[in-house]
Amino acid sequence: MTYLNPKQKLALLSLYSEEIKKRLTPIYYSPETIGLLRELLDLNKFDEICLFSANETEFAENLWNSLVTSPMNSALYDTILSYLHPIDKELHAVLCCITENDSRSNFRLVLSNLDDFWTHLNVESTITFFKKMKCYGPVISRLELGLEGVQDESTKKKLVLRIIPMVGANAVTDLMRSIYDNSEKAAAFVNKLRPDFLRFYKLIDKARDSPRGVITFCPLNMSIEDVLDPSAGSKYEINLNYEDIPCSSVGSDSVMSRLLKSIDRREFEETPILLRDYQKELCESSLLGINTIIAAPTGSGKTVVAAYIIKNHLENLERSDRKPKVLFMTPTTVILDQQAACLKKFLGHRYQVFAAHASDSTPLREIVMEKDIIVSTPQLVVNMLNYTESEDTDLVRTPLDVTTFTLVVIDECHNAVKNSPYTVFMRICHRLNFSHRIKPGSSLPQILGLTASCGVGGASTEKDAINHVVKLCAVLNCQVISTVRKNADEIKRYSPFVSDDIVFCKEENNGSRPLFLERLCTLMRLFEQKFYEIYKNEYAYWSRHSCISGTNQAERPSWIYEKFTIAPEDKTSIPYLNWVSNHRRRFVPETTFYEETSKKKAIEMLEVLHILYRAIELYQDFSTVESYKYLKEQFTPRQAFLTEFSLDLWEGYSKEFEALQSSDNVLVSELV
Fold it and tell me: Would you say residue 336 lies in a domain?
């Protein structure tokens, strides 16, 4: 390994500072994971950083600055490598293999004079200079891809300097030549590093005309015939003028591959997935490819665990030259975008995450085939799987079946019961498997279920509860239910059981609040009396047919529809709400009146009573201010359509309500 002095080590870390800071953010939530990094800080400095950092980003920035300026920063490089090794082997490998291979590019010269190189470097002119040399083509192409959309000049310079260790023995010399003409100070700096630089560079440039030659190498796991096959192109050719023979073979773990990743900013922009011990326990069986239900409490980070499993799945299949595709299903559209955003946070810079909505005008099948991770509701997926071409259409649609996906994540999987969309989706999988209709070369996807609890399905006995869970596992084709056992104490710290604390509060009898409620109830009785009057005088007969299609009087679901009833006396009770709702939605619409206007008046009375009841709910939970505000919001747009009776009552009582407004509420006072 090439030796780096402390200054060079700190310079190397500074080129990757943004990536390292992202890997420090999880310490904000789990301070115990700081490990040996804490020993580099002054006494109590870490606690101070935790206390005064407003968020994870500010915390990582403060921690990194403190580590870099620490009196013990000479040990920072090795300590950072020790910290990164278990959590991000890619970044760890990049930092390591730079130190192992920089001798061929004299990269230490750049690290020793990083501030001066930084000052005199012009990104555009350096890239233009390097593009003139054919040997730098592949690396410069990758660099330009990494620079797409980058506006920050500091980031651009870091990415340019990262390429130096990978482009040959003359890389630093070519870098110096690219900045030589930028200014007189730049030329003076270059001549200081290498006296009479232009003469020296001419000698180097002339040597390029006599290259060391090109050789073809054969990896151990391949035959010579395959290597020499014309279709392989120059994949196994090495130009010794600017490349070294790979230490192992061409592949994802080769030195060149790791270094190429170091200039692709997208590889390190994504948020690292750092699992706690209980989260690692939860994903053990899924990482082995076993269909699993992960059952863990709300707030324990099941989506983060799923993101880790998805990333592992995608990487494993890519290494085996298979095409991975992940389907992440949520039961409703409410949390669809939320889950998609979470997956993009962890995986979006390396993989394409797409949130599919039924309202999308884009061709979903084509998009599904293009993206790596699709977040959707199960119903939308089932609709696409069940689609059949009509005979009169010439439209050719992209074929889609369940074997298109290699991993299916089912969020809130306890909903896979009866004929739910989740169940329908899994039924398609079971039928394919049972009938052996899976096309050659394909297989059913791995299943990962996520839930806070498998539930008991309304079971009243232990046997029935067990049967419910077994049935759920059968529907999802899952052999394992993964729960936290070994790290139960840890999960309690992050997802503790919260018990309900019930406090009984006595409503005050004095002041404006009880008077406000009394006037509300009085107004309700006036509308009730008007409703009774309309019903008594205008009622003709009640229809024998229910408004529920296909049922008659004998089949009605509740006795309450059988006859007209008087409203309960307690206007604040649930039975009162039931009375209003049943008469407004069922009884009155099914009653025939002598005049149609009488039915409309009766319904109006019930609608007003419903509004007044909701105002009482706001009065109970909040204040008279909120209750009166709600009343005004409901009555104001209706004033042009209300009967004279309703309008007169509202205008009279609204003045009383306005005078009785108060922000007091014993429930709110008890909470705060």
Answer: yes
Q: In sequence order, which ranges of 622-643 are alpha helices (DSSP H)?
A: 624-635
pTM: 0.55
Distance between the two ends of the chain, CA-based, in angstroms? Answer: 62
Q: Are 163 and 256 in contact (CB under 8 A)?
A: no
Q: Are 161 and 108 in contact (CB under 8 A)?
A: no
Domains held by the chain: number = 3
Q: Is residue 453 part of a domain?
A: yes
Residues 6+ apart with CB under 8 A from 201: 173, 176, 177
Split at pLDDT 50, 70, 90, the class of 253 is very low
DSSP state letter for 438: P
- 314 and 461 inside one domain: yes
Q: Per the structure block, which two tokens stand in for 68?
A: 């870099």
Q: How far, in Å, CA of 207 to CA of 350, rounded?
A: 40
Q: Are both 335 and 438 inside the same structural domain?
A: yes
**Residue 266's pLDDT band (cuts 50, 70, 90):** low
319 assigned to some structural domain:
yes
Q: Note whether 189 and 332 are same-domain residues.
A: no
Q: Is the pLDDT of residue 187 over 90?
A: yes
Structure tokens at 283: 């994903």
How far is residue 133's CA from residue 127's CA, in Å, rounded to a whole number?
10
Nearest to 671 by CA among 446, 451, 501: 501
Domain that holds residue 62: 6-209+253-262
Question: Are 455 and 364 in a shared domain?
Answer: yes
pLDDT at 551 over 90: no
Please tell me the distance from the alpha carbon of residue 144 to that of residue 136, in angstroms, as a whole number.
12
DSSP 196: S
Give 611's pLDDT tier (boundaries 50, 70, 90): very high
| DSSP, res 254 | S
